[in-house]
Every structure is written in structure tokens, then in C-alpha cells.
Amino acid sequence: MASFLAWLSVLSPWLQIPLIIGVFAAAVGILLFFIEIAPRAGRVYTIIRLAACVLFPLGVMWALQSWWWAILAAGVLGLLFFWLDYRAKAGAGYLFQLVGFLAPALILLLVGLVFPVIQTVGQSMLNSSGTRFVGLDNFLWIFTRPQGIRTILNTIVWVLIAPVVSTVVGLVYAYFIDKSRGEKVYKILVFMPMAISFVGASIIWRFMYTARPAGAEQIGFVNQVIVWLGGSPVPFLQVEPWNTLFLIIVFVWIYTGFAMVVLSAAIKGVPTEQLEAAELDGANAYERFMNVVVPGIRPSIVVVLTTIAIASMKIFDIVRTMTAGANNTSVIANEMYQQFRSFEAGRSAAYAVILFVLVLPLVIYNARQIKAQREVR
Amino acid sequence: MKTAGRKRILLATSGLGVAGLALAGCTGGPGVSGGDGDGGGDGSTVVTVYGTIIDAEQELLEESWADWEEENGIDIQYEGSQEFETQIAVRAQGGNAPDLAIFPQPGLLADIASRGYLVPAPDGVASNVADYWSEDWAAYGTVDDTLYGAPLMASVKGWVWYSPAQFADNGWEIPTDWQGVLDLTQQIRDETGEPPWCVGFGSDAATGWPGTDWIEDLILRQSGTEVYDQWVANEVPFTDPQIASAFDEVGKVILDPDYVNAGFGDVGSIVSTPFGDVANAMASGDCALTHQASFLDGFLVEAGAEVGEDGDVWAFILPPYEASDATGSTVVGGGEIVGAFSDDDAVVQVQEYLSSPEWANSRVSLGGVISANSGLDPENAQSPILQSAIEILQDPDTTFRFDASDLMPSAVGAGTFFQGMRDWVNGASTEQVLDQIESGWPSE
């Protein structure tokens, strides 16, 4: 991988662009191709799968430069495919095919997620160079820092406000846009911020919020508007405790589109018979919305809420880019990064563990809701 | 149904084609070793150098050794990155370290050296260091009594910039002690009715660093070199009264709404003012005084001011705390140290050349920087402020101390210290700020 990138770096930019796009398309192509042939029986597909057994580990080896990984991948894939083809001869065994193609992912998850979690918990009990066991000292240090509690509280404020606002606004959008003409255009406009990276959005909004002293030329859009309306410029990112809210606005701006798209799909699934029946019973528009539509899409709302809650719990890029944690806006992920950068692995890991403990209930709840929703359908 | 089947086959074959293409493209292209860089030498031996210097500065750096490359047949490939501080540790651990690294913080050099990645300095470098650098400077490249590298460039901090014409018109005098600075500030305030100082801490994620320079200057002047050195080593913690008193002294200037923030607003605007923007206020005359390192020169020139004793803007070094201890300037400064990850002959040659007066003169004559190399001819410096800085560095009476935030472990030096300065000018109590900065010290 490194050598490929090194080789790429000496080419002219005009060659690099098509190459990068080509490689990306190739990767996506391979993925789609395998998804396409996964549930099929037949000799040709067996051969292709056999080839995959050989090529995939080679690819792993080349990308990760590691023998162990390649051996692991090869063994796992080979055994599975062999067994799969054996079972799936009759064209049945779809479940096994599925398992077969999920197996690498599952194993990678186990190795790449579960193991690091255990490792991180271990690291959080060691000192910065990982040479001495210090028990819970790192956690004590976090909670006794002058601003340690504030950091954790900020994260919780994010989780309480951001998902609710995004979901409510997204739901309102979804309901009204569904009924209006030019639905697609509006949807694209609302969804557009989702296509911007968080860092990009943060830089845009930092510009929007920029304050210059009263009387000087304003370069921030928001303050320019305030000045036009006769107010004096507000240094948005410095006014405690509201600055955290101004950061949350950026997040909401991005995630509203996501909430809208998911909820709009759910709203389309609410049976019209119910709505008509409610109308005949004399319910007005607001009552219909609150008593028919919302209960009808409740599972989707919960999933959207929890998904956004998890995203806001892990929030890092907006805070890092816009304030870097200044003026009491810091959040756990930002502190974690700060400690990691300063060779403080133990303290960084302790922050990571706290974040993990906070996210875990949300993730479990979310997974169960998704499952419940499937069963309803 | 049939068409669907066809479509599938088409998709599958196209997928296969794409996969084949991809695999063909993946056979490890040519020039895996990174190919040939352009320019410099005949490319027979390549020495890679990694550092923080980028853009225009990088071009001058490459220009400074271009002739030497030709003569010696060594191709120096320089790679500059703003992510250097994060990346160098990763690269050292990952086994693809550069041959030479230009460390902007001795603390980082010590971190890397103590983990056993660096090669001790070759004899040629050691003798150059002995001949051309003061003991203070040699100590910054030394970890556990082993010299790992020579300094490269230097900068002098603690200049107070002012307008000579404005001073002459109003009869204001350049102060000779810290109390004089406070009196002058009050005098300017009384006579103009405007805040005299402009201060800018803004620097993206590193916002707050200009504040650390203020504190370092005051600790060095008020409590002396011994306390300063103990403070760097955390033998004198941030919570010590001597440190708190330096904060109080600095606060007399930059926390007083009567004294700041000329041209930008009130005390609260310090954090949101980018450190380079004060140059505009100085150039336009909105601001009478500002405290910043010698590099402000470049920003001032860009803002359209002429820098010089008879120009629009000139500078004096922040005076001593008591006028009686004036036996020579006491300055805080910064600089780079060149450390080596390899001891190949070519690398040793380059490292020796970079520690020589020849290189220092070659680079300084291209403008914009100075070096503490005593073999440097001050005449080579392009601007009056740099000449003045070189004179200070070469003066045997000068007490020089490296920027403390660069010497401290980065958890404090580039972490809580910066953050503490931000919170402090935003109104947090000194006691709380000192507690918070101290809390960043590594466990061991």
C-alpha cells in the first residue's frame, strides 16, 4: 500500500486523479460483484469463489504488509468457501452463503473491534509509556482536573440537544416537503450538507460566526447581518455557555438532512386508510399528524434519534476545527486526541473508555430497536 | 425475467473486468522506492530531511544547500509538513523515519531520543557545536549527556514593537525596567485615551501560544534563570507563587481593559485575534505597542510598514525586571535542532554541513531567519531587526533561555499551557488556570 502510494506520488497530478478514481471504482466494483454472485450456485461461481480465496488474502497481505493477517484470511476464507460450496450444491444453503460472505467481516470485527476495546481498557490502567500498572489513577486524574467534569458535561449536553433538535426539525421538514410540489428539489437542498465533511462544514461556519470589533469591516456573515440590523457584533464562539449551542447548530444543520430522508421514507409507509379514517372522525391536520403519523413511524424516529445521539456523543471534528476546546467547549473526544498527541497513551485511553461506557447503552438500545422494527415489518 | 438475468450477467462480467483491471494495477508499480526527486545533485546518494518548514521558507531552505549538493553529489530531499510533531513519532515507530529531522522543540527531540530512535551526533557535528554555539544551545541538543544534534536556526522572542516617530513626537522614552513598561503604558493611555497594547493569541488549534511567551519573559526576568530552569523541569510547579506572580505582572498589562486591545476591541478579543493581525494594527498606527518575536518583521513588511530604527516600526527587547540587573540582555528564544536517524556517510556529511557557519551564512543571506551560530556574519542578515537579533545572540553577556513551552512535554507545552492562556484572558481566575495547566503534566 505504502509503496503504491509512493509510486503514485511521483506521477503528475493529471495521472493521479484518474488512477485514484479507477482504483476506487475497482474496489467498489469488486464489492458489488461479490454481492451480486454471493447467493448463486454453479461451477463458474465456485471457480470465482476459489479465485477470491486466493486473491483476497494476497490483497490483504499487500495492503497490510503482514503475513499473519494473510494466513488468517486465507485459512478462514478457504475453509468457509469449501464448506459453503459443498452445502450449497442444490442451490439452497442461502443462509450459509450469507454467513460465508459475512465471515471475514465478522472476524475482522472481532479482531479489529473487540480486541482493541479490551486493549484500550488495559491501557487506561497503565502509565503513559505503558510500563507500570497505575490502576484507576488516569480516571482520577480526569475527574479531578479543573475542567474534567465540564468536558464530560459538554458531551452530555451535545447528546441531549443535538439529536432531539435534528430529529424534530427533520420530521417537520419530511412531513411538509412530502406534501409540497418540487419535493425532490427541497429534499436535495436539505440533504446537501450531509455531503459536506464535518471539517469542511466547521470551517464554513467558523467563517459565518467570525466577529470583528464593532466599527471594523465584518467578515462573518452572521455578524454582518447583526450589524446591518443595528446590533453590535457577537463573538459567537466565545460566549459561554452559549458557544456550545452554536457548535451544535452546525451539527444539526448537517444531520437534519439525514433525519429527513429516513423519516420521509417512513411517512410514505403510513397507510392512507388510517389517515382518511382519522379525517372522517373529525381530526384536524395537527391531530392527524400527532396521533396517526407519529405513532406510525415511531420505530423509525427512535432509530434516527439513537443514531444521531451516537454520532453526537463521538463528536470531535466540529469542536476541534472551530474552537479546539477553547472557552469551555471541549468534549471527550477532543481531550482524548489532545492527550494522545502528547504521548499520554494512558490518559487518552481513559478518556476513550469513558466515551465507550457512555456510548454503549445507546448502541445496544439502537441495535435492539432496529431489530424490533424488522420484526414489526 | 430474462432481461434481468442478462443484466446480472452483464454486471458480473463488468465486475470481473473491473476486478481484473484493479489486480493488474496492483502489481506494485515501478519506482517503489519513491522514484527520483527533482533537482539537486546527481541523485547518486539521497538524504531525506523532514521538518516543519513549509511554503516559501521551504524554498529558501532548499536554495540554501543547492550549491553544496552540486559540489558533493548528495541529493537532499526535504519534506515539510505541518503535522511533523504528530508524524515524526509515528514514522520513527513505524520504521520509515527520515535520515534527518529538524525538531522545532528540544522537548520532542528528547522524547524521540530517549526512546532510542536517534543516532548520537557524529564527531564533526560535535566539534562544530563546541566551536560555534554557546553551552546553552549545546544543552538543547543534549539528552542524558549525549549530544544528538546541532541547532539550525534561531529566533529571538520578547521584542516590544513600537513606532519611533510616535515616541519622538510625544516625548515617550523607551523603558529600562518592567515598572517603566507599566508607567509608559499608563502614560500612553493618559495622553491618547486609547489602549496602547494590541495582543493576538489566535492560531487555530494552537491558540494561546503568544501568551506563553509573555509569561516566559516575565518569569525569566523576575525570578531569574534558576527558577526558569526548575520551572521547565516542573521542580517549580505552575502553582508556585513565583509563577503566579509572573502571571499577575503580565495581567497588569493584558488583562486591563484600559490597556488592550488596541484596534480590536476589549480583553475578550485577544483570543479571537489571529497573532499575525496585530501587524496590521501596528502598521496603521491604531496600536502603539505589541509584544512578539522577531518574525513579526515579515508580517509588518506585508502590512506595508517599514521596519527599522528610523522606519515606521521598530522594537526593543522587553527590559529587565529591575534596571540594576542590566548586565546584558536576557532573552527567550526558539530554534530548531537537527537530529539523525541514520549514520550513513552521506547523512553525516549533510548533518555536519548544516551545523557549519557556511550553511548558516548561506541561509541567513537569503533572508527572513537568523541563526545562533557564532560564525555567522551579522552583515548577511537582510533586515535591521534580524541584525539586531544576531547581535544579541552573539553577545557573550546575553543570557539566553529556550522557549519553555517548547522544552516542556507537549502535554503541557503545547496542551494545557496554551489552553490555560486562552482561559486566562477569557476571565478564568489565575489560581484555577495554574491548577489546570499543572494538571497536564505527565504522570512520569
UniProtKB/TrEMBL annotation, chain A:
Membrane topology term: Multi-pass membrane protein
Gene Ontology cellular component annotations, sorted alphabetically: plasma membrane
Alphabetized InterPro entries for the sequence: ABC_transporter_permease, MetI-like, MetI-like_sf
Keywords for the protein's UniProt record, in alphabetical order: Cell membrane, Membrane, Transmembrane, Transmembrane helix, Transport
Heme in keyword set: no
Domain ABC transmembrane type-1, first and last residues per copy: 152-366
Gene Ontology biological-process annotations: transmembrane transport
Compartment annotation: Cell membrane
Domain of life: Bacteria
Full protein name: Sugar ABC transporter permease
Organism encoding this protein: Microbacterium betulae
Lineage: Bacteria, Bacillati, Actinomycetota, Actinomycetes, Micrococcales
UniProtKB/TrEMBL annotation, chain B:
Alphabetical UniProt keywords: Signal, Transport
Keyword Protein biosynthesis: no
InterPro entries in the record: Bact_solute-bd_prot1 (IPR050490), SBP (IPR006059)
First and last residue of the signal peptide: 1-24
Keyword Signal: yes
Protein name, as recorded: ABC transporter substrate-binding protein
Similarity-based family: Belongs to the bacterial solute-binding protein 1 family.
